């Protein structure tokens, strides 16, 4: 069954020469080969300010680039978010993008039920998070606790109702040889074909 997929490329660099871009392209190619529909949001190319207050987040008007990204996210059944691990977490530009795009009224809403504080407006969507890093993926997961991934899964995507949320950790990217890179690209293409 064909799915609608929105890939969010969270690398803050404007160039296309990072391995994360190749991984996103491989996922997209695999998905399109399997006849899934794919859209791409490249965060580094978007023009938006950082939010600086709760009232702005709750009541401010999203800029045009953010409204367009919201349309692509609303359209999708499945989201793929790629980013490099910087100082143990996602780059600030991606965090700023998520704060802008996942606003009340789009991602969550105040609940009418006294038993829960909000309604999850993005239910029915699944996600794949792909993180590239210099350290081994197992070290990030087991030694450092994968705290940035867990926060994204639980406190951001899960808060909006997105599930399941799967993760792919690509470690030691700077040390990968041509064969290692090819294996990762094929893995991402296979995930794209399966739309998971």
3D structure, described in words:
The protein is 40% helix and 19% strand. With 196 residues, the protein is α/β, with parallel strands linked by helices. The strands form two sheets. It has a five-stranded parallel sheet, sandwiched between helices. It is globular and about 55 Å long.
What's the short story on this structure?
The chain has helices at residues 19-33, 54-59, 64-75, 92-101, 137-143, 147-157, 178-194, and strands at 4-9, 37-42, 78-84, 108-110, 118-120, 126-132, 165-170. The protein is of the alpha/beta class and 196 residues long.
What would CATH call the class? Alpha Beta
State the strand order across the main sheet.
2-1-3-6-7
SS-derived structural category: alpha/beta
Biggest β-sheet: count, sense, barrel?
5 strands, parallel
Number of strands: 7
The arrangement of helices and strands along the chain is EHEHHEHEEEHHEH
């Amino acid at each position: 069954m064909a799915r609608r997929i929105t890939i969010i490329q969270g690398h803050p660099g404007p160039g296309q020469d990072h391995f994360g871009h190749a991984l996103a392209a491989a996922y997209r190619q695999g998905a399109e080969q399997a006849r899934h529909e794919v859209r791409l949001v490249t965060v580094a190319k978007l023009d938006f300010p950082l939010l600086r207050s709760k009232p702005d987040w709750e009541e401010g008007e999203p800029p045009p680039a953010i409204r367009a990204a919201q349309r692509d996210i609303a359209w999708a059944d499945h989201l793929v978010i790629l980013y490099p691990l910087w100082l143990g977490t996602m780059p600030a530009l991606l965090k700023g993008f998520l704060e802008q795009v996942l606003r009340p009224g789009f991602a969550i809403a105040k609940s009418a039920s006294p038993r829960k504080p909000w309604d999850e407006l993005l239910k029915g969507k699944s996600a794949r998070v792909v993180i590239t890093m210099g350290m081994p993926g197992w070290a990030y997961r087991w030694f450092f606790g994968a705290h940035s991934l867990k926060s994204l899964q639980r406190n951001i995507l899960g808060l909006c109702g997105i599930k399941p949320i799967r993760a792919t950790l690509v470690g030691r990217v700077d040390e990968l040889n041509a064969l290692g890179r090819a294996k990762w690209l094929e893995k991402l293409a296979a995930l794209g074909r399966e739309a998971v």
